[in-house]
Amino acid sequence: MSQKIAFLGLGVMGAPMTANLVRQGFAVNAWNRTPEAPGITIAGAAGANICSNIAAAVRDAEIVFTCVGDVPDVEAVILGPGGVMESAAVGTLVVDMSTIGSQAARMIGKKLEENNLRFLDAPVSGGDIGAKNGTLTIMVGGKETDFQTCLPCFHAMGKTIRWCGEIGNGQAVKLCNQVLGAVHMVALCEALKMAKIQGLDPHLVIEVCKTGAAASWALENLGPKILAQDLQPGFMIEHILKDLRLVKETAQTAGEILPGTDLAATLFKVVAELDEGKGIKQGTQAMIRAYD
């Protein structure tokens, strides 16, 4: 591929996404804030060029991807000292794949445009499984021409790629996705609790229900993890709580409440406080611990 790529953020999601870009023939410079992170090994083993700072990673890049944590992290990497805005060439396309909400995305897009850089917000869904398999759902906001430019890269990382309209709209769709994911987890945990109450084999319940109207990604992918007591994070409780905070802020701005989402957030917070606060690092399927 002729496009030169930089990927900033080699966490649970970013590292396999970077690896998939390399496997599809893209030349990728990669950087991570924490030098000893396992993701650096994953990206490097795939063939990414690991850089020691953002400037070195983005200097020659035509497209710069970022995939980090919360709004302050994205702002620091893109807008902060030594960040993308200072180091990227004029006209570079910056694509943030974090989940930060529409307001932050629009602010970042505006500042980049003022500095002759382009921007897409492109949050993803599918967890670590989708990141590893290159089957992510990618929701994109920004100019359609920039979306088309980036499409070959998106196809390397995802299966379902949708342009959602102007900057911020990708984030807007992602927040809807997070509402569904959070409330589906409540439903999954309560279904498994109901199976236990009735003396049913929970494996049977999953196998039957995943073929009918109650089917969901959570049921099929996280249900078996719960039964195997595998609470390792594909998506941490820490991160879903951040996303649900953004959902709540957005709803409150409109004077609305989302009772089901509030319940999910409460249950995630219960688990986050377990093990002297270490529960926050477990996967979202650990919500089941709130029902023990």
TrEMBL record:
Annotated source species: Microcystis viridis Mv_BB_P_19951000_S68D
Protein name: NAD(P)-dependent oxidoreductase
GO molecular function: NAD binding; NADP binding; oxidoreductase activity
Similarity remark: Belongs to the HIBADH-related family.
Ranges where the 6-phosphogluconate dehydrogenase NADP-binding domain occurs: 4-165
Positions annotated as active site in the UniProt record: K174
Swiss-Prot/TrEMBL keywords: NAD, Oxidoreductase
UniProt keyword annotation of Oxidoreductase present: yes
Residue ranges constituting the 3-hydroxyisobutyrate dehydrogenase-like NAD-binding domain according to the UniProt record: 168-291
Classification via InterPro entries: 6-PGluconate_DH-like_C_sf, 6PGD_dom2, 6PGDH_NADP-bd, HIBADH-like_NADP-bd, HIBADH-related, NAD(P)-bd_dom_sf
Source superkingdom: Bacteria
Classification via PANTHER family: 3-HYDROXYISOBUTYRATE DEHYDROGENASE-LIKE 1, MITOCHONDRIAL-RELATED
Pfam families reported for this sequence: NAD_binding_11, NAD_binding_2
